[in-house]
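note to self: dont lose this again. the chain is below, predicted strucutre after it. 182 aa total, dont forget to put it in the shared folder this time
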Amino acid sequence: MSSKFDREIILKALALLDDFLRKQDTIGEICIFGGAAMILAFDARFATRDVDAIFVPKDRVNSAILAIAAQLSLPADWLNDGVKGFVSDNEDYTAEDMPVFENLRVIRPSARYLLAMKCLASRVGGYGERGDISDIKILCQHIGCDSPEKVMDIVLEYYPPAQIYAKMQFLIQEIFQSPQSS
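---
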């Protein structure tokens, strides 16, 4: 099943997750990454394919994910922790501009950290797919980053040089060479 998650669906699913945790007398925490973070914190895009996140308590949230998927007719992996392999050791999270719930604390990477993650991914997209370029441009504008060198400095705050590939460097150079990035 191919789903698109817009702001309304994401907020509805998070509210149901909060409700599930409240009924379990549990406080949970979720850190939302990627497109969902761009939607919620920066109102930067219309939709994303899923909600990438890390969350605790894992067992209770996993149970809720399946229940919410069934209730809202979403794929079973609508909320997934596949992003955990890309999380930096330099944790830099904030609750700024994120929804507030009673039993669910919602946080996201800082704009700088999210920029570093988007650059590391460097997805250009294809027909009918969205890449990371527009998100990188929005984040650069948000933090006032105006050169490829400044972007690289930010990426290196979060990731070691061994994780930096030529593909990313070329993409960043291309973004700042295009007339729309000014």
